[in-house]
Amino acid sequence: MRFAVNYSTPLGDLIRESAVKVDLLKCPEWNGIVNAARPIGRVYIHYDISIGTGSIQSLNFGLIERFLRTTDTPHLNIHLSNHPHCEADNSTNRKIMLQHWKEDIASLRAAFPDVKIVAENLPWHEFLPQLKMAADPDLIRMAIEEYDLGLLLDLSHAQISAQALGIDYQDYVSRLPLDRLSELHITGIRDYAGFPTDHFGLQPQDWQVVKWASRQIELRAWQEPEIVAFEYGGVGDVFSWRTEHQVLLEQVPLLYEIFGEN
User: Is 39 helix (H, G, I), strand (E, B) or coil?
Assistant: First the structure.
């Protein structure tokens, strides 16, 4: 099990100062960010690949292959998504969405036949109506098992979806194929612009979730993941405004003690 954190300039500074330690730097498939992160530590790529949206054929397959070959990326991640045209949750649209997932996975397997594929659960709430079906834990389990995928469990996404569905997040997670857990993502959740938003630092209630997840791995109730990633911080307009030096300094060492190679 290796511990990763989103690459950011503040994180890079702390690593150079030996103030924090990570096993991997998590980067998007952007040459500029990867090139900035490489001198600091081992890099792995989290790809922006959504299946079920009709976007597979527009992917840069050459770029994906190059990063799989030249970084410490152990698998190809995908996001279980859905097309807005299939927004209504009914049996017909469920069949359409699952067929789109099957076809997109087949396309990726044809392009990368020897690479393990892991599927991430996306969050559903009222502002993302097209993701209601895609966030159904029973559909996620069925797809992962039927298409022989690994599970990339995003705990914050699971909590957001569970809240929208009106169920306990532990019940939601228990319905996923945890015997196929390959990667685990953790972040803090806060209310922002009227709805729950992830990629913040960990608050006390978030630490409770982290400790619960760690305990499940320790007890072997879940398969031990290859990577546990703290998806905090980053580069660009989406992430830089919520990247705080002090949060990294305080929380990365605590998380490394739990999930790092040590």
Answer: coil
Query: What does the pLDDT average to over 104-117?
Result: 96
Helix, strand, or coil (residue 38): coil
Q: In CATH, what number is assigned to the domain containing residue 83?
A: 3.20.20.150
Mean of pLDDT values over 155-170 = 95
Cα separation, 224 vs 104, whole angstroms: 27
Q: What is the pTM of this model?
A: 0.95
Cα gap 118→58, rounded to integer Å? 20
Instruction: Please state the domain count of the chain.
Output: 1
Q: Alpha-carbon distance 228 to 41, whole Å?
A: 16
Of the candidates 93, 72, 73, the residue with the CA atom closest to the CA atom of residue 84: 93
For β-strands 43-45 and 50-51, DSSP reports them as unpaired
Asked if pLDDT for residue 198 goes beyond 80, the answer is yes
Q: Cα–chain-centroid distance for residue 87?
A: 23
Helix, strand, coil content of the chain in percent (nearest 5): 45, 20, 35
Please list, in sequence order, all residues whose beta carbon lies within 8 angstroms of the beta carbon of residue 120, skipping any fewer than 6 positions away.
77, 78, 79, 80, 152, 153, 154, 157, 183, 185
Q: What would the DSSP string read from start to end of 161-187?
A: HHHHHTS-HHHHHHTS-GGGEEEEEE-
Q: According to the model, what pLDDT value does residue 174 have?
A: 97
Which burial class, exposed, middle or buried, applies to 237 when counting CB atoms under 10 A from its CB (0-12, 13-18, 19+)?
exposed
Residues whose CB falls within 8 Å of the CB of residue 112, separated by 6 or more in sequence, listed in order: 64, 65, 68, 76
Asked if residue 196 has pLDDT above 90, the reply is no
The pLDDT tens digits of the residues spanning 46-78 come to: 999 999 999 999 999 999 999 999 999 999 999
Q: What's the average model confidence in pLDDT over 147-155?
A: 97
Domain coverage including residue 93: 2-259
